[in-house]
Amino acid sequence: MKKLFAVLCLFFLGLVMASAQDANALLGLYLTEGGKAKVRIDKEGDKYVGILVWTARANVKDSKNPDEAERSKPIVGKRILRGFVYSGKNVWEKGTIYDPESGKTYSCKITRQDDGSLKVRGFIGVSLLGRTSVWTKASN
Question: Residues with Cβ < 8 Å from 44, sequence gap 6 or more?
Fold first, then answer.
């Protein structure tokens, strides 16, 4: 009985570790669709976040931000992805994405493709009402 318990514990530990590795597959640097920007996705606690680390246009300010105090700040360094949790099968949900071009924040879902690219879907309310862009893995 003790051996069976030990085997089951090892099995479940293996499942937990495999799931954590799958969840962390999102980490890294990505080039947004059209090559306009690079976003670095990191993990903070148990959530995933994304920071805008480069844009094709230098020194752009966050002029459309609804928070007037943020409008004079550069968009590079801005956290544009927040609060994502891994839901399994290469999908991260329950997060938001900030669009500096419009100043709006949307609900968002990220799906990692087999080639390492990301389908990033921003939406209002339900996922059917939104737009998807593809981000590709970038080199430093």
Answer: none
